[in-house]
Inverse folding.
C-alpha cells in the first residue's frame, strides 16, 4: 500500500511539473482602418507562433514570461516582403497594440495551463 501511494504521488508530481503555461492570444489586425482579421491562438510559452493574412502579411511572435502579470513579445513582421522586428511588453488581460507602417496589431493575452 505504501508503494502505491509513493507511485501515485510521484505521478501527480510529474504531471504538475510537466504542465506547461500556455497563453490565449487574441489578435486584431488592421491595415489603416480596414480590419483584416481577428485570429485567436493558443500559444505555448517560448514557442513561436505564426499567421499569414492574404499574401501581404506574415506575423510571427513568441510569448515569454516577463513577470507575474506581464509578458514580453518579440515580433517578426513581413509586410510586402519587408521584415520588421518590433517588440512589446503586454500586461495579461489588458489590450495593447503596436503599429508598423500601415499595419496595426492589437493583442489581448491571458494565461492558461494545460
Amino acid at each position: 500500500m505504501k508503494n502505491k501511494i509513493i507511485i501515485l504521488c510521484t505521478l501527480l508530481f510529474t504531471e504538475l511539473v510537466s504542465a506547461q503555461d500556455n497563453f490565449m492570444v487574441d489578435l486584431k489586425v488592421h491595415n489603416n482602418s480596414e480590419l483584416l482579421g481577428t485570429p485567436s491562438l493558443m500559444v505555448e510559452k517560448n514557442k513561436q507562433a505564426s499567421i499569414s493574412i492574404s499574401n501581404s502579411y506574415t506575423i510571427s511572435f513568441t510569448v515569454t514570461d516577463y513577470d507575474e502579470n506581464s509578458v514580453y513579445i518579440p515580433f517578426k513582421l513581413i509586410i510586402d516582403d519587408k521584415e520588421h522586428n518590433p517588440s512589446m511588453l503586454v500586461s495579461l488581460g489588458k489590450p495593447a497594440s503596436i503599429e508598423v507602417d500601415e499595419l496595426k496589431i492589437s493583442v489581448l493575452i491571458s494565461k492558461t495551463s494545460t
Observations:
- The chain has one domain: 20-113.
